[in-house]
Amino acid sequence: MNSTNESGNSGQSSGQNSGPKRNNRNRNRNRNRNRNNSNNSQAPQIKSAGPENKATSSNANRRRRRPRRGSGNKAVPEQNKVISKYLNLLEQHLHARRKYFAMYHRADDRQLNKLENNYYGTMEKIREFEATMTEADKEIFKKHFDSLKSDTTYSENHQISRLGDIEVKEGEIQDPHLLMAQMNSDFKDDTEESVGTLDDYKAYKGIP
């Protein structure tokens, strides 16, 4: 009797103990399964490169390449044409000049001739552009590049000419380039006329 009761009690105790453990294991499995499913749903899904995806990507590329509204070529004013043309020619000339002088002592004869022709060619283009400008273009050019006026505040306040008065003194003007020995020399007693050839001069000076 005692053994039967003990075995029954042990069976009941083992059943009671195994029940909560099994439930905990099931709960942990369900949690792990739900966690894996949520991670998979958040992961980026790779789509197959089917025709629908290709069409979508081509439409997106077409949208990127499509020009913006209002960004087309507008008519450039005549004033900007003259200025931009001159600045373009000037930039070409400055580049050719910089390259010509930078390679002057390093380039061979053939390359140096090419650089020199390019340098003078760009200069000639600027001269041709200036010579072929119309009167309207000259006004635009002068207004843009010669727009700085001379400062005449002093001359206006003192009521004097902007260029000043040019005075020419009469009489002997001292030469500033003469040396003191030349200035102190007196040649009034020298009456000998300078005659002869270059060979006579060399013989007189002892030059071989």
Polypeptide structure, described:
- This protein is mainly α.
- Among the domains are: 34 residues; 68 residues.
- It has eight helices and no strands.
- The chain is elongated.
- The termini are far apart.
- The N terminus is likely disordered.
Topology:
Elements: H1 2-42, H2 51-65, H3 78-102, H4 109-131, H5 135-145, H6 153-157, H7 180-184, H8 198-205
Helix pairs in contact: 3-4, 3-5
Features:
single chain; 208 residues; mainly alpha; 8 helices; elongated; disordered N terminus
Helix segment count?
Answer: 8
The first-to-last residue Cα distance is 158 Å
Helical content band: 55-70%
Main sheet attributes: strand count, strand direction, barrel closure: none
Shape: elongated
**Which series of helices and strands comes N to C?**
HHHHHHHH
Query: Uncertain regions: pLDDT < 50 for 5+ in a row?
Result: 1-17
Give me the count of strands.
Answer: 0
Strand content: under 5%
Report the C-alpha radius of gyration, rounded: 51 Å
Q: By helix and strand content, what is the structural category? A: mainly alpha
Mean pLDDT: 76
